[in-house]
Amino acid sequence: MTENQGRKFVEWFKDRFGLKISVLRPVPEYSMNPLYWLGALTAIAFGLQVLTGLLMLIYYVPTTDQAYSTTLFIIKYVPLGGLLETVHLYGAYAMILLAFLHLFRGYFASVQKRPREMMWVIGMLMGLIVMAFGLTGYLLPWTVVSKSATDVSIGMLSFLPAQIGPIVTFLIAGSGTGAGELTRFFDLHIVVLPAALLSLLALKLYMFEAHGAAEPVSVAAKEKSKDIPWFPTVYLYFAMIGALFVAVLFVVAAMFPISLPAEFTPQAASNTVAQPDWYFLWMYQVLKFKSFEGSGIYLALGAVTLAALGISLLPFIDRGLERNPLLRPIYTTIGVIIIAELLVLTVWGYLTPGQIIPDSQAILVNGGVAVGIAAVSLFMFRLSRRKNGKEEISPKKSYLRAIALPFTNRSVTAVFLIPLVAGSVSFANVVSLLTSGQINTLVVLANFSVLVVSFYAMARMMRNLSLAQNRLLS
Q1: How many degrees, rounded to 5, is the angle at CA 424 between CA 422 and CA 427?
Q2: Nearest Cα to 72, choosing from 56, 55, 92?
Q3: Cβ distance 130 to 198 under 8 Å?
Q4: Cα angle at 258 between 257 and 260, to 5 degrees?
Q5: Cis peptide bond N-terminal to 232, omega within 30
């Protein structure tokens, strides 16, 4: 289809449906960047989930006595059934991960600025629905892992206020029996949540066509940009990145097929440590802090709720006009801290299943991460504002130079990895030996020596990079 034919079809479509906004209007050249298409890739993942889910519904039976056996039947006996289940699982993972990436990309690019405030709010609601997909779909195979973890999630509903807790629990978990829980989660997963997500997606696409892609933070990039027609240029670009995404997903699914845990039984559950899937591990780890045990869980849930509300209402909190993250040190630092805390809590939760975390350890780890990032951020932003005589260096330019240093000094960066790996391994060995109760003094000293030498080598290399930065600024 040529460009003119495509435009004629679009105009015919608009005229027949009475649309007052442009449909598939030309897009600016700066949006021809994969980061601008994270939301579209999330939509592709959702479409793949719908397709694979419908195929699995041919065999799956949502009852407590057949859910596990029919899932196992699909994996073992349906042609390409194992690949189908694995693609559905990894597609869900990809959908959740892309939603997080889309959120933080939008956060740092300040896409929530006027007039896109409501697009941001709608996007946050869509993100919550994506997380709900993960929660409801996790239970459906009826494994001991998924059922135990889901029961922990449902148990948190009991801490809601008495006026709404029972109602919400009934709407989400049904009558309280295993059969009622599975049926309700199945209905939510295949009917309610898809309908809600599609409705919000249609609304957001309509708003996107009205407002267009968010402008880049760089004024120069905006001024140099030109409009590119959807047919055929943008269409081919979107088709290529979408095909690449699906291909990678299938390759990963073929290389790492799904492994179904044991079926849920009360006996098996008593010997299993309840642990949610990775996308909820960060919250689960917070709830394991000693202070949040018992009635303290109200504080944890309240803090998480306030954080979610704060991010959802960000357009009405951050009302400044500046969008460049390099000129917004407070919001940029907060965003980096949030990402780091989510990663640390997720990995920490994976490594400490079922363990109650002492308050001192929680403060040391989470507080240390936040303080460390804040200190580094303060140093970098101050460095970017250093003056060269009477002329102040552009914050953007100097900060980008600092970020580019590891790439422009590739030899130093490559060598830096050697002491980094050696120091990390030595540190892990020292901690393991000191906590094992069987201390070999010679081995501990050897690892500690390697750790000290590695730290000194990294410090020297960082000094050289800092001097290189100063030379760039002078």
Answers
A1: 105
A2: 56
A3: no
A4: 150
A5: yes
Res. 431 pLDDT band, cuts 50 70 90: low
Q: What domain range includes position 171?
A: 3-275
β-strand partners of 143:
263
Residue 70 covered by a domain = yes
Give the residue from 250, 275, 300 where a domain finishes: 275
Q: Taking the alpha carbons of 73, 78, 81, 85 in that order, is the dihedral positive or negative?
A: negative
Query: Is 360 a domain residue?
Result: no
Give 342's pLDDT tier (boundaries 50, 70, 90): very high
User: Which residue bears the tokens 């993250």?
Assistant: 325
Q: Find the helix or strand (DSSP H, E) in which 95 lies.
A: helix 81-109
Q: Lowest mean pLDDT: which of 47-56, 125-134, 226-235, 276-285? A: 226-235
Kindly give the residue spans of alpha helices, DSSP state H, lying in 256-328.
Answer: 266-270, 278-287, 297-312, 314-317
Last residue of a domain, one of 257, 275, 293: 275
Does some domain include residue 373? no
Q: Which residue has the higher pLDDT, 439 or 182?
A: 182
φ, ψ for residue 357, nearest 5 deg: -95, 120
CATH number, position 226: 1.20.810.10
pLDDT at position 199, please? 96
Between CA 343 and CA 351 the distance in angstroms is 12
Output phi, psi for 54, to 5 deg.
-65, -40
Q: Total domain count for the chain?
A: 2
